[in-house]
Amino acid sequence: MSLTPEEMQARADHAREIYTSVDRERLVRHIVHLFDLEAADEPDEFTYPAFTKPRRQRIFGGQVIAQAMVAAARTVDPGKSVHSLHAYFLRGGDEAKPLHFRVHRDFDGRSFANRRVVVRQDGKVIFNLTASFQAPEKGLSHQIPMTGILPPEECWDFADFIAVDPKISDRRIEHMARMHPFEVRAFRPPPSEKATMQYEWFRISSPVGDDPLIHRALLAYASDMGLLSTTLMPHAMTWDTPGLFSTSLDHAMWFHDDIRVDEWFVYVMDSDWSGGGRGINRGRIYRRDGTLIASAVQEGLIRYDPAATQ
Predict the structure, then answer these.
(1) N or C of the chain: less Cβ packing under 10 Å?
(2) What does the alpha-carbon distance between residue 232 and residue 162 come to, in Å, rounded to a whole number?
(3) pTM, whole model, 2 decimals?
(4) CA 306 to chain centre
(5) Among residues 157, 224, 262, 270, which one is catalytic?
(6) Treating both helix axes as pointing N-terminal to C-terminal, what angle do 212-222 and 61-73 enclose, rounded to 10 degrees?
(7) What is the pLDDT of residues 44-99, one digit of tens each?
(8) 223 catalytic residue (yes or no)
(9) Which CATH architecture has domain 1-33+142-310?
(10) Is 35-139 in CATH node 3.10.129.10?
């Protein structure tokens, strides 16, 4: 199935019309509010209430990653910043139910602190995360350079990307246009190339203040956007491919430097391998000046059964 130029233009215009109709400041305030965890009755326990108007069947993985990281940070000396996290998705979360975060203080040293966070709904563990925090110090320094990356002005916005892919449903167009808190510019090779690399520029669509923890939390939130889709590219598939089921299994992230998410940063993603119903995805996040600020790795469940649609 292919689209005519007129059909592609109509899809892009429709997506942009929805995007511009949304109150972006209100949407970003809602995302930042995710990190306003409430202290529970017991020490080192926090809650987040159920959504009054659930937007999707499952909680977005980036949300619970960022919330658990913030919960851990609230029990650590402010002089130490999160430098790494490792998380597992165990059960699908439900936006219609409250979240409970239990932080375990596993270690507090002069340079490092370590925390485990267990997240529950209805008394069942749905997610766990381990995070490490470090006090600032100097050391040897090197990084992989940012090469061959087009600036955001020369990449497609999300509406351009939607326009050329007939597999993206009208429902997904509506969701992407209404619920994305970031401005996005993307580079993805055509499906015919079966490439294993893509990249996306992000910038939060309204101001979020100066708290470094909020900026790192929003970066953690964004780190779950698009990463798993890299596994699908060598197979010329998208989330809307009939018979495909995919979900994140785990997520690891390392923070190398501070970030302002209200300035452009680029997420360079590639996939080394898929097999056995799983796929590996890696990401490097750079500031626009080429500074590497974070790295991420995620394994996802990738199950494809075309017979299931017949």
Answers:
(1) N
(2) 16
(3) 0.94
(4) 28
(5) 224
(6) 150
(7) 999 999 998 777 778 999 999 999 999 999 999 999 999 999 999 999 999 999 99
(8) no
(9) Beta Barrel (2.40)
(10) yes
